[in-house]
């Protein structure tokens, strides 16, 4: 996160190379230790400071909204379609052969449990994340063939499609307050009523995927099913969100030609995201505002559905904090381009 902060400082030098002023920068995270540490490391890199005291704050209500959503917890545990698709995948012949073939490759005279295979897959990912040299060969990854890694990736894709993505409509509701926050801040910048010039959030991959879903990114034309295991064309992929994943939403205005108006660009992991109807990823602000106007209306963009049928009032909901293995950064930037 420190090096990400340095790169952001270089890319948006007009903003981040200025002295830090509290009312110009909003930097918030969840209350988990790793999230707070990520925020502090980013701040040190972006502003080249050693002391980050009072530069970051906690906002679990926005950045971890799903933890208090009773309705989401109920759907996630009981949704029949989710359970059917995931169970069907785990009982498919290709999954059984996966464990058998890996066991043979390792020289075992018995078949590994699917949980053992999954643990080795996770170790492969962690090992490669911490050892990114092109010359490094992970012993954990050496267990698998390329095709086997694709099967395990699909297993994870299917799981999170329902847990965090388009598979459960409540996920889009949970991602909406973050999108509304973005639209309101950009609208404030356009109308010169904003308070901060940059907003930086550090959240979990669960909220990150929900925001991407609410924005409409990587939405396949057909719902993801267990039978899509060999479909290489699918858009929904959890591999798009690695360790330290980041989403930049940047509002631009040319000071050389103000007639062009404002434009919005989305960057995923520092690369421009293509958006339908936008030229090379550069979208007219009015188009973005109109696209999400009805979605982010306060009458519909709220978490009221989370508490339907709950015996506990919203104000008395208990907040649960957990350590997450993946932290994601969401950055809103307002930028005048020359």
UniProtKB/TrEMBL annotation:
The chain crosses the membrane at residues 320-337. One of its GO terms (molecular function) is bisphosphoglycerate 3-phosphatase activity. InterPro entries: His_Pase_clade-2 (IPR000560), His_PPase_superfam (IPR029033). Its main location: membrane. One of its GO terms (cellular component) is membrane. It is found in: Membrane. The keyword Mitochondrion does not apply. It is an enzyme of class 3 (hydrolase). Its EC number is 3.1.3.62, 3.1.3.80. It catalyses: 1D-myo-inositol 1,2,5,6-tetrakisphosphate + H2O = 1D-myo-inositol 1,2,6-trisphosphate + phosphate; (2R)-2,3-bisphosphoglycerate + H2O = (2R)-2-phosphoglycerate + phosphate; 1D-myo-inositol 1,2,4,5,6-pentakisphosphate + H2O = 1D-myo-inositol 1,2,5,6-tetrakisphosphate + phosphate; 1D-myo-inositol hexakisphosphate + H2O = 1D-myo-inositol 1,2,4,5,6-pentakisphosphate + phosphate. Keywords: Hydrolase, Membrane, Signal, Transmembrane, Transmembrane helix. SUPFAM superfamilies: Phosphoglycerate mutase-like. Gene3D superfamilies: Phosphoglycerate mutase-like. Coiled coil: none annotated. Belongs to the histidine acid phosphatase family. MINPP1 subfamily. This is Multiple inositol polyphosphate phosphatase 1. It comes from Clastoptera arizonana (Arizona spittle bug).
């Amino acid at each position: 996160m420190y090096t990400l902060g340095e790169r952001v400082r270089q890319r948006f030098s007009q903003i981040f190379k200025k002295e830090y002023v509290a009312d110009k920068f909003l930097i918030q995270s969840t209350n988990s230790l790793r999230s707070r540490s990520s925020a502090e490391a980013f701040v040190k890199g972006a502003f080249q400071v050693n002391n980050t005291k009072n530069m970051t704050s906690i906002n679990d209500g926005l950045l971890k909204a799903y933890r208090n959503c009773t309705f989401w917890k109920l759907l996630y545990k009981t949704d029949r379609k989710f359970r059917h698709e995931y169970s069907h995948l785990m009982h498919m012949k290709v999954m059984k052969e996966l464990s058998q073939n890996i066991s043979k490759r390792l020289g075992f005279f018995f078949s590994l449990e699917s949980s053992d295979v999954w643990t080795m897959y996770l170790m492969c990912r962690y090992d490669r994340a911490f050892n990114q040299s092109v010359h490094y060969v992970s012993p954990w990854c050496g267990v698998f063939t390329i095709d086997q890694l694709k099967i395990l990736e699909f297993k994870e894709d299917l799981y999170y499609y329902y847990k965090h993505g388009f598979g459960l409509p409540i996920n889009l509701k949970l991602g909406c307050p973050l999108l509304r926050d973005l639209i309101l801040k950009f609208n404030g910048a356009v109308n010169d009523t904003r308070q901060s010039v940059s907003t930086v959030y550090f959240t979990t991959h669960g909220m990150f995927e929900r925001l991407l879903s609410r924005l409409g990114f990587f939405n396949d034309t057909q719902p993801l099913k267990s039978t899509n295991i060999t479909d290489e064309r699918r858009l929904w992929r959890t591999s798009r969100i690695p360790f330290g994943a980041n989403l930049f939403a940047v509002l631009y205005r040319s000071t050389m030609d103000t007639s062009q108006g404002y434009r919005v660009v989305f960057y995923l992991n520092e690369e421009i995201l293509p958006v339908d109807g936008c030229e090379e990823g550069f979208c007219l602000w009015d188009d973005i505002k109109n696209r999400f106007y009805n979605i982010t209306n306060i009458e519909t963009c709220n978490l009221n559905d989370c508490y339907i049928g709950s015996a506990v009032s919203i104000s008395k909901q208990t907040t649960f904090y957990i350590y997450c293995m993946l932290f994601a950064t969401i950055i809103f930037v307002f930028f005048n381009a020359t």
